[in-house]
Amino acid sequence: MSKRVGEGTVELTSRPWAAAWSSTAGKKEHKGPLGGSFDFTLDDDLLGQKTWELAEAAMLRDTAIRCLDKVGLKPEDADVLLSGDLINQIMAAHFCARELGIPMLGLYSACSTMSEALAVGGILADSGAVRRAVCAVSSHFSTAERQYRTPLEQGGQRPASAQWTVTGAGATLVCGRDWLPEGVKPAAALRYATIGRVVDYAVRDMANMGAVMAPAAADTLARHLLDVGRTADDYDEIITGDLGKVGRELMLELLKEKGVKVDPSRVWDCGANIFSPEQDTHAGGSGCGCSAAVLNGYVLGRFAKGEVRRAAFMATGALLNATSVLQGETIPGVAHLVVLERERG
Amino acid sequence: MSKRVGEGTVELTSRPWAAAWSSTAGKKEHKGPLGGSFDFTLDDDLLGQKTWELAEAAMLRDTAIRCLDKVGLKPEDADVLLSGDLINQIMAAHFCARELGIPMLGLYSACSTMSEALAVGGILADSGAVRRAVCAVSSHFSTAERQYRTPLEQGGQRPASAQWTVTGAGATLVCGRDWLPEGVKPAAALRYATIGRVVDYAVRDMANMGAVMAPAAADTLARHLLDVGRTADDYDEIITGDLGKVGRELMLELLKEKGVKVDPSRVWDCGANIFSPEQDTHAGGSGCGCSAAVLNGYVLGRFAKGEVRRAAFMATGALLNATSVLQGETIPGVAHLVVLERERG
Asked: CB distance A88–B91 less than 8 Å?
């Protein structure tokens, strides 16, 4: 049973499990500093499909199946699929769902979708509404670039604030306390969820998504800490989604302005760490597959080994719509936060 | 606290309230048979904004505010906004959320988004995760036509199976049992939610959305009745979203094939009823604003007057992506179902 804490945080009092996790990444991501932590690397970013969109859907489906398979489960052992991606109408998620056959709630909060899925999945498992929820999210460099920006063939110049959309997917199996498969050792429990507000600091630059997301990230983290009566030091790590290098600095500045003390060494960003500087992605990686793959590879892997015991995972989303930007509108951002904790013993 | 019933239905054991509701519709919708049941009719489908997209966002925001205002609440009295629309990246919902300031979960299941929002909002309120949830959904003829089909100025010919995207919005305030504002008489309680599966019967025709959605609707309704051990006769009404005239017939046929007995006189479709035959919309209305406005006008209005006591509301969505259709892919559908019940006394 869930409990409202403070103004806007949900405590998952039964502490549902992050019971299984799986990640997939593209070749470029595999060559980055976290490359060794992904379960599966694509040899071919088309996965043998005839379009990138179908490739992304297949990657998402395969990641969800691998996640279930790790703990000996089949799609029918899950009651709900919580899924989204960046293709218009979350096409990859829907094409994945029609093959898996799991009842699906379609989610969209841009690159914050992984933590949105964990927040909803956590509450559903905590409340007894479902036994198990598959939270699965993807992005693909080629589907995102052609939809949001310019044809790849144009070879446009990218500014230093630009980020590189990650080809990757991540899936987490969230299990209610009574529904952990026998013999399975979960990585961590879900303890809190703080749902983000949509925040707009009047940024219009499609090549500076970090600046769009930073205010939303600062807002959610500040509200979270106030709601649960913790300080940032109570977390081993605060993991942001894909603020990139520019957005991370802006978030830390905004937190300072709000009077929220944060030791910068505890805060790291999936987007700023998925590629090495030599890979020339400028401000880092982005796309909902970025934080999804890093969470379901590097982060939960370290939880499982006991290297992290308590972390706030806050994926961040730039709510970019190509039409509204052309119409001169500003771009809002959002950030959802979930707390993962490893219990003693 | 929620309870899993059967294979895939959630029982909301505390029965959260549909405490307030509001609807907005365009001029054409106002001239239809249900015109008198909408709270507010637009004189100008631009609402004084410079683009249709901003107009849709303003319509959605105003509908949510009116819904809260009816029971003396402000946006800060709600803990979550569950919202979606048909514009890419659910732009209207995000632009609405940045003005309301309510923490937001972005949802997308095309024209099934109203029942998806009620399902999630019901579970969140039932579990104690939130006090009150605003479920708000919209569509706009002009934003949808130019995004999914052809420029309006082209004046393309529409086949008989085509539907007309409704300009409209609906908002429902879902309250946990302890959080009904004093003196407020709710319309009904939320009792069950059956989350839809993504079903694809290989339809490729963008001008026959009824055929896309009918198999998903039949699947969800059949699963629901089996899960809760009820027959269709246990419902005063089974209200589908926007199957239109073609889709409604197909759903009834598919239910017959599945051996599910349904008295057709109990089944009516929001899309098939929002316009009169003289309005020349062919198979009827569509768009997530169609079922949202009809639910939050005509349907909950009749619940409040005691004219309906128990209904299954099943909005239906065609998960159409313009790129994938051009790539030759088929269009999947989905349908989420919630049960509304008026208690005795």
From this structure: no
Q: Write out residues 105-144 of B within 8 Å (CB-CB) of A.
A: 105-110, 116, 119-120, 123-124, 126-131
Closest by alpha carbon to A97, among B203, B337, B196?
Answer: B196
Q: Is B140 helix (H, G, I), strand (E, B) or coil?
A: coil
The string over A4-38, giving b where at least 16 C-beta atoms fall within 10 Å of a residue's C-beta and e elsewhere, is bbbebbbbbebbbbbbbbbbbbbebbbebebbebb
Q: Which residues contact A73 (CB under 8 A, 6 or more apart)?
A: A20, A132, A173, A181
Q: Find tokens 């039964």 and name the residue.
A: A14
Contact B332 A4 (CB under 8 A): no
Rounded CA gap, A117 and B310, in Å? 31
Inter-chain residue contact A88 with B90, CB threshold 8 Å: no
pLDDT in tens, A219-256: 999 999 999 999 999 999 999 999 999 999 999 999 99
With CB atoms and an 8 Å threshold, state whether B200 touches A50: no
Residue of chain A minimizing CA distance to B130: A4
- Chain A nearest-CA distance from B140, in A, is 15
Q: Is A190-341 in the same CATH topology as A16-179?
A: yes
- Distance from the Cα of B249 to chain A's closest Cα (Å) equals 23
The correct answer on CATH 3.40.47.40 for the domain covering A190-341 is: yes
**C-alpha distances out from residue B107 to A278, B86, B88, B230, B337, Å:** 38, 10, 12, 29, 15
- The whole-angstrom separation of Cα A324 and Cα B340 is 37
Nearest to A84 by CA among A66, A64, A70, A68: A64
The verdict on a CB contact (< 8 Å) between B94 and A54 is no
Determine the Cα angle at A295 with ends A276 and A162, to 5°: 40
Two tokens at A119? 């927040």
Distance in Å, alpha carbon of B320 to nearest chain A alpha carbon: 7
Residues B265 and B274: their CA atoms lie apart, in Å, by 17
d(C-alpha A60, C-alpha B151), whole Å: 33
Cα→Cα distances B116→A209, B138, B235, Å:
29, 13, 20
Task: List pLDDT tens digits, range B230-276.
Answer: 999 999 999 999 999 999 999 999 999 999 999 999 999 999 999 99
Distance of CA B202 to the CA centre of its chain: 24
Tell if the CB–CB gap between B197 and A101 is shorter than 8 Å.
yes
Q: Which residues of B touch A323 (CB under 8 A)?
A: 53, 87-88, 91, 147
CA distance B91 to chain A (A): 7
Ranges of residues in chain A whose predicted pLDDT is under 50: 345
Q: What is A16-179's CATH number?
A: 3.40.47.40
Nearest partner of B289 among B133, B87, B75, judged by Cα: B87
Q: Provide the β-strand partners of residue B10.
A: B4, B193
Interface check A330 vs B, CB under 8 A = no
Give residues 80 to 99 of A whose Cβ lies within 8 Å of B.
Answer: 80, 84, 87-91, 94-95, 97-98
Tokens of B296: 């939050």
Tokens representing residue A250 in the block: 């802006």
ipTM: 0.97
The tokens describing B226, both together, are: 């089996």
Mean pLDDT of the residues in chain B: 96
Q: Where are the domains of chain B?
A: 16-179, 190-341
Q: 3-class SS at B256?
A: helix
A339 three-class SS? strand
CB B135 within 8 Å of CB B17: no
